[in-house]
Amino acid sequence: MLNFSRRDHTADAQETGNAGKSALRPAIYESPVPPSPGIGSRPPALPPEPMPKRNGTVASAVASRVDGADAPARTPTQAAPTPSPDETPASKLLVGVNIELKGVEISACDILVVEGHVEATVHSKAMQIAEPGTLKGTALIDVAEVHGEFTGELTARTRLVVHGTGRVSGTIRYGRLIVADGGEISGDVKRLDAAD
């Protein structure tokens, strides 16, 4: 518990002219279990009231009693607002470690993450091949990052990044190429402008 002031609270109250007011005290825990008869001064808990019905369904407002006084009724929780068409979440596909995916076409995917082994044709905005992952096939991507291994036909329209553990081979076309120390790229490698 933090103690920001080491001075006596009653001395503070007297200095400010509020000697009649008590200092703040920590909250006292009140058990939800009613005390045994004759122990404590709290009145016994009231039995729960039946819930009102509306149109054949139970209403979500619940009235409760606290220390003998009525508490305000709780309002029903409102559903989360639906996102507008401009705020639609990105579609993401993750192929986990030890998963093999063969003979498929992956399209209309915003983000593809490959940690397993995939043989496919891919049309995606962004693709990341993690270190244990491999992808064989054809990929038409805006941005591709390779930590694992790619073999086949790869077109990275905007950028191709081959990290230190990455291996890329085949017919490679790219907008910009970044190869980190240790990364390997081999095959028919051309920049998109030069290929046109």
Structure description:
The chain is mainly beta and 196 residues long. It has a domain of 101 residues. It has two helices and twelve strands. The strands form three sheets. Strands 5, 6, 7, 8, 9, 10, 11 and 12 form an eight-stranded parallel beta sheet that branches. Strands 1-2 form a two-stranded antiparallel sheet. A two-stranded antiparallel ribbon has the order 3-4. A hairpin with a 2-residue loop joins strand 3 and strand 4. It is elongated, with a radius of gyration of 33 Å.
Task: Output the keywords.
196 residues; mainly beta; eight-stranded parallel β-sheet; two-stranded antiparallel ribbon; 2 helices; 12 strands; 44% strand
Per DSSP E runs of 2 or more residues, the count of β-strands stands at 12
Cα(first) to Cα(last) distance is: 69 Å
Order of helices and strands: HEEEEEEEEEEEEH
Q: Helical element count?
A: 2
Radius of gyration: 33 Å
- Strand fraction equals 35-45%
**Overall shape:** elongated
The major pleated sheet works out as: 8 strands, parallel
Structural class: mainly beta
* Poorly predicted sequence stretches spanning 5 or more consecutive residues: 56-71, 74-84
Mean of all residue-level pLDDT scores: 75
Helix content: under 10%
